[in-house]
Structures are given as C-alpha cells and as structure tokens.
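Entry 14. Structure prediction run on the chain below.
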Amino acid sequence: MDIEILKQEKNVLLGREGIEAKVAYSEATPSRKNIRKELAKKIGKKEELVVVREIKTYFGSGMAKIYANAYDKEEDLKASEMESIIKRQEGKNKESADKPAEAPKPEAKPVEEAPAPAAKEPEEKASEEKKEESKAKEVPKEEKSE
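Output returned:
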C-alpha cells in the first residue's frame, strides 16, 4: 500500500491538519486502521491523533482517495470529531473486545402445532355484523315512472 499526500492544510483554529491523499493498493481495499497507521507514519503524528474521515474507492483501479484529519492534541480531536467517527477509527476488533462473551443458547425445542380455532374471535364477528348491517341499509333506488 502506497500513500501519496495530495493536499495538506493546517487549521490553527481547530488544531488540526486536513489531509487529502491517494492510496494505491493491489489486493482488497485497505482498512481504516491500516490507512490510519500508514498515514500517521507518513506525516509524523501519533496514530491516535489521526482520523480517517472518508475512503473513496474507484472501481477496478486499485486506487482510493482518502480524506483525513490529523490533530495536534487529543482534546482538540474530542472537541471537533463526533463520537461515532472516533469509534469507527477503533475498528471491529475493539468493538468485539468490549462486548462480553455470550452464553451458548440452549437447543430449540420442537414446536407443537397450535389447535385449530374453534370459533371466530369477537372482533371478527363484530366486523362481519357491521358489513351485514350496511348491506341491509342499502335500499335499491326505485326507478321513476311517468
């Protein structure tokens, strides 16, 4: 995986650098974690302070364009980035480590067949009665004869 930085803009107010880069790869699209690691090496920042915002791939080209932010301090990162973006950087391994191991589920018992309904439910009876009443109220119009 080769990373080529296309644009790097310093934002003093937010304490970060906006980075636009191109990633060339031969196999599958690299993960955020791998891109983050390589980009941090390339720009000389700690991996924890680099946030990969977007990975745009181009079908069949083995190339992707990435948009990232590299922060000066962790406080700036937490103040500027949404929690969901920060969690996304941790990857799947971090999420699975946070969850406790689930107990094995007991085997499913065979389902018994439900007894056939003996009578119609009251709601169904009521709706049928209303239909019959409305039909009875409808009286055919008499034709006028002169």
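The radius of gyration is 32 Å.
Filed with the rest of this week's runs.
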